[in-house]
Specification:
single chain; alpha+beta; Penicillin-binding protein 2a (Domain 2); Beta-lactamase; 2 domains; five-stranded mixed sheet; five-stranded antiparallel sheet; 21 strands; 34% helix
Length: 553
């Protein structure tokens, strides 16, 4: 009789389960579950993000600089694995060994996250590690698809291109500046999971994912590598703190190279810190020293303060104000024309010209050259430098500004200023993206005066302080700078920045390059000795690779 009753009840439950998806009847009405398929779906159906790739970054010739590649991320369902793990029913020592995770660390993670149904145990693992883990086939352990950012351009591009975080969001450099274009849009899908938490069936795509857009830069990977190697060599030889270089295509404003040494490995997240990650071409300001002299001479010429053939007697030096020491040149340069002041880099001559020129005119001319103002180039961390308010210019500053002390700039600002001269006084917008259209510039300087300044700088390379910047078969115009560094509020006699900014070919300008070497310690140091040779070596390679026709034989 009892057996018959039990059999009867079992048959009723089977009929209820199969026919009505419930196990509810009179005897268990308070604890039963109705609509069992719905309860099962709630446990087995889940929504997951659809991840797709971030846009790639290309150089001007179509070479890949940065791209995203598919990777697997190791996930674990702590909520499911907690009980069997603490009861020693599951041994995951082999997994922990493969991912190099100490057991004590895993136990701490488990205790803190025991209610989580999906925890990223190891993100974006390499293919060998994935293959080893997949063979283990542990319950409640599975993989999801992600993308990892890879930088094919290496350290010679890294502080310009920048990097992303683990979730592929731009954090620095062009990765940050162009993040809205490069980043992808995630989708959503409905999936069915098995009892171990693994995705076994795609039920529905609720929202499609959208890959990020690619961008093409104006940078040339070949020249970036060449320039980086040259900077490294010269920094090592001179025991300098660092060096930077930037090259601009004159007519279009395209930035062809932007290089900083030392740099960092963009594929090693442990190096994403410190000074090395800074793009010092745009983020580090300095006093420009003698590289400002052509701009001051232009201000004097354009305002008719001085004529092209006038001479300046530098032999007796100059007192900038009643309290200052006598300013003298590195040697007695005697009577100098404007060309001679640029050619011989006379501080006394430049200060005299500045003092003869109206303060406001100098201030306005510096602004026309974008010194101390926005270049409208969207580099994260870019600085504009500064010029003191004209009302705060004392007699000393009125003179020192003539040879580049008392104001600050960046290397990109200097290159931009010389590019205006190279373009006969036309300013074009700088860009780190490839330019396909004709660029229309703005005539902001007097054409004739700009050409006169260019010829003066050509003499500075032919016979003056910039002789080491000469390039075989090409004419060069340029200017050196040797600038004392302020340390503890005082100008040091032993610490300098050395600079050279040049234009080539000088007869028909096509490119402008600016070089700075920061604090070289192997003396003697000067812009002509330490920066001009870098320009010469780099531009010899560059003009050849860029197929610029020689203008000298």
């Amino acid at each position: 009789m009892i057996v018959s009753v039990v059999f009867f009840l079992m048959m009723i439950r089977v009929i209820l389960l199969q026919g009505f998806e419930t196990d509810c009847f009179y005897l268990n009405s308070e604890s039963c579950k109705s609509d069992l398929s719905t309860h099962a779906d709630k446990r087995q159906i889940n929504h997951r993000e659809i991840i797709t790739n971030r846009g790639s970054i290309y150089d001007v010739n179509g070479r890949i600089l940065a791209m995203s590649v598919p990777k697997k991320t190791l996930c674990i369902n702590f909520k499911k694995i907690y009980e069997p793990y603490i009861k020693d029913e599951i041994d995951i020592d082999a997994l922990l060994k493969i991912i190099n995770l100490p057991k004590k660390r895993f136990n701490n993670l488990l205790r803190k996250n025991k209610d989580k149904v999906e925890y990223y145990l190891k993100r974006k693992i390499d293919d060998d590690t994935y293959n080893k883990l997949e063979k283990l086939n542990y319950p409640y352990v599975y993989f999801i698809d992600e993308y990892d950012r890879v930088y094919l351009s290496g350290e010679y591009f890294s502080n310009v291109i920048g990097f992303t975080d683990i979730d592929d969001n731009g954090l620095s450099g062009i990765e940050l500046a162009e993040d809205n274009i490069l980043k992808s849009q995630k989708g959503i899908k409905k999936i069915r999971k098995d009892n171990l938490g693994r995705s076994v069936e795609l039920l529905e795509v609720i929202k499609e994912s959208k890959p990020g857009e690619d961008i093409q830069l104006s940078f040339d990977q070949r020249l970036q590598y060449v320039g980086y190697s040259i900077l490294k060599k010269h920094v090592d030889v001179t025991d300098a703190d660092s060096a930077s270089l930037v090259l601009i295509r004159s007519k279009t404003g395209e930035i062809v190279t932007m290089i900083n040494y030392p740099s960092f490995d963009p594929n090693n997240r442990n190096e994403f810190k410190g000074e090395k990650i800074k793009n010092k071409v745009v983020s580090t300001v300095f006093e420009p020293g003698s590289t400002i002299k052509p701009i001051i001479v232009y201000a004097a010429l354009a305002s008719e303060t001085i004529d092209l053939d006038d001479t300046i007697n530098t032999a007796n030096g100059l007192k900038l104000d009643s309290k200052s020491k006598l300013l003298t040149d590195y040697k007695n340069l005697g009577l100098l024309t404007l060309e001679g002041i640029i050619q011989n880099s006379s501080n006394v001559g430049a200060a005299m010209i500045a003092k003869k020129t109206n303060k406001q005119r100098i201030y306005d001319t510096l602004a026309e050259f974008n010194i101390g103002s926005d270049l409208y180039v969207d580099f994260p961390g870019i600085q504009n430098g500064s010029i003191k308010d004209i009302n705060n210019w004392d007699e000393a500053l009125h003179g020192t500004v003539g040879y580049g002390y008392g104001l600050s700039t960046t290397l990109l600002h200097l290159a931009n200023a010389y590019n205006i001269i190279a373009n006969d006084g036309v300013r074009v917008q700088l860009s780190y993206k490839k330019v396909d259209d004709v660029v229309m510039g703005e005539q902001i300087l007097q054409r004739d005066s700009s050409r006169e300044i260019l010829q003066m700088m050509r003499k500075a390379v032919d016979n003056g302080t910039g002789k080491s910047a000469k390039i075989q078969n090409y004419s060069v115009a340029g200017k050196t700078g040797t600038v004392r560094l302020r340390i503890n509020g005082e100008y040091s006699k032993n610490n300098h920045n050395v600079i050279f900014v040049g234009i080539a070919p000088a007869s028909k300008p096509e490119y402008v390059a600016a070089v700075i070497v920061r604090n070289p310690k192997n003396r003697p140091v000067s812009g002509g000795k330490n920066a001009a040779p870098i320009f010469s070596e780099f531009m010899s390679y560059s003009l050849n690779l860029l197929e610029v026709y020689p203008d000298k034989r």
